[in-house]
Amino acid sequence: MKVNVIGAGLAGVEAAYFLANKGIKVRLFEMRPIKTTEAHHTDKFGELVCSNTLGSFEITTGAGLLKKEMELLNSLVIKAAKHSYVKAGSALAVDRNIFSDFITNTLISHPNIEIIREEVECLNENELNIVATGPLTSEKFSNYLKTLIKDEYLYFYDAIAPIVEASSVDFSKGFWGSRYDKGDDYFNCTMTKEEYDLFYNELLKAEKVPTKDFERVVHFEGCLPIEEIAQRGYETLVFGPMSPKGLKHHISKDVYAIVQLRKETKEGEALSLVGFQTKLTYKEQVRVFRLIPCLRNAVFSRLGSMHRNTFLQSNKVLKPTLELKENPNILFAGQITGVEGYSASSATGIMAGINAWRKLIGKDLLIPPKTTMLGALINYITSKEGELQPMNPVFGLLPDIEAPKKYKKLLKAHRALFDMARFIEENNILT
Ligand SMILES: Cc1cc2nc3c(=O)[nH]c(=O)nc-3n(C[C@H](O)[C@H](O)[C@H](O)COP(=O)(O)OP(=O)(O)OC[C@H]3O[C@@H](n4cnc5c(N)ncnc54)[C@H](O)[C@@H]3O)c2cc1C
Asked: Where in the chain is the domain with CATH 2.40.30?
């Protein structure tokens, strides 16, 4: 009984730890330090490539609820985070070196784990494999993946627009309706010329994340950062993503520009800003996008970003068990599955570990309940219709619950934790 785990990042370490604790022999492949990525700086496992926070620990936030579920699942990442915790309000911030040392030492000293420091270029498809090579998967292995799945299902660059919580949007400052009256899937935030002027000028002044060498890409014209479009001239936005085209008959003469919000979930609790992919710093995104009148008090459940990101169209190629449809000996985990962020990447690693274990003991594979954040996220990435864009854990993915609005989140969170605890117990996941 042996499993190959490829990549000792956040997802790979969780998968390896779960399997090894189940008594299964793991070969954990990591190419660093022999070959490194553009963002990693060390040879440590579970390295945090950028920010040193794993986000909120409050169960009424998406990332916080997911972390609680991970804790129930005996997550190594959560153990390491608690071990290396540094004070940062309600956020789980860590000392990144202590964090990675804890993970590395735990896995190196585990009797069931063999560490192999090499770049994996292809898989032995007859063995059981978990691929967790992350957003910066090496080029050779990416090329192999393209042969394994269809070329068009492996995406390389990622431009993410922010997502806001619908409950924080001022719906009195706009109207529902699609362009040319094709349904009412969009909420149109309206702006007068004065409001647009202010927004435009602040957008031009706003601080951007510096572009690293490896990110110097020629963006597709249809996927330009919003601030780059703005730089081309005062009116480019109103003839682009902020155009009132096809909606004019709905709006009064004083409306100069609109911002469309699109439902990200069936219930419409999470809304994305259409065409607002951006490289502004997180702080500046909040400041500038709140100048859009209907977003004055917006709560952002995801902020925009643009960085190299190798990810699958999991909705086309993966089963909800994280197995590759074409070859069930290969499971995927981490950011490469189309989830976004440290916690989501780690959590899918645990789930891939669980299903590799189930395969080896000849039991049915498991799908976590959709009422849990982990289950909702996996359901989203494996069943989303159309094109999949990376998604992080947001409350809008969870099924609705009957309760007064102000209690909904708390009740959803408690339901999720109860269902996760039952899922773990009923399937002997930790025993
Ligand atoms: C530049 C950048 C900044 C980010 N910043 C943040 C942030 O601040 N906050 C946040 O929540 N998320 C951030 N993310 C997103 C994401 O959460 C992290 O990338 C996270 O580390 C993903 O976890 P993972 O396990 O999927 O991949 P990783 O943690 O990257 O792990 C993948 C591992 O696989 C190894 N590997 C790759 N190819 C091979 C191969 N062929 N053979 C052997 N080993 C291989 C890599 O060396 C790496 O150790 C960022 C992503 C990028 C690219």
From this structure: 163-303
Residue 361: what residue type?
Answer: I
- In order, the DSSP letters of 170-213 are -GGGEEE--GGG--S-EEEEEE-HHHHHHHHHHHHHS-BPPPPG
Query: At residue 119, what is the residue type?
Result: E
User: To the nearest whole percent, how much of the chain has pLDDT over 70?
Assistant: 95
Residues 421, 70 contacting (CB under 8 angstroms): no
User: 228-284, pLDDT tens digit by residue?
Assistant: 999 999 999 999 999 998 887 778 889 999 999 988 776 778 888 988 989 899 999
Which ligand 1 atom minimizes the distance to the CA of 138? 38
Task: State the DSSP H helix or E strand holding residue 258, giving kind and residue range, or none if neither.
Answer: strand 257-263
Q: pTM here?
A: 0.80
pLDDT for res 269:
83
Q: Which CATH architecture has domain 163-303?
A: Beta Barrel (2.40)
Other Cβ atoms less than 10 A from the Cβ of 319: the count is 16
SS3 content of the chain, % helix, strand, coil (to 5): 40, 20, 40
Distance 249 CA to ligand 1 centre (A): 47
Residue 385's Cβ-count burial label (10 Å; 0-12, 13-18, 19+) is: exposed
**Which of 345, 346, 350, 391, when mutated, tests ligand 1's pocket best, judged by the most ligand atoms within 8 Å of its CB?**
345
What residues contact 96, with CB distance under 8 A and at least 6 apart? 47, 48, 52, 84
Report the nearest atom of ligand 1 relative to the CA of 13.
Answer: 25
For the domain 2-159+308-426, what is the CATH code?
3.50.50.60
CA-to-CA distance for 218 and 92, rounded, in angstroms? 35
Give the tens place of pLDDT for each residue, 362-381: 999 999 999 999 999 999 99
pLDDT in tens, 282-322: 999 999 999 999 999 999 988 888 777 899 999 999 999 99
Name residue 326's amino acid: E
Spatial neighbors of 14 by CB under 8 A, at least 6 apart, are 75, 76, 77, 333, 346, 347, 349, 350, 353
Q: What is the pLDDT of residues 102-119, one digit of tens each?
A: 999 999 999 999 999 999
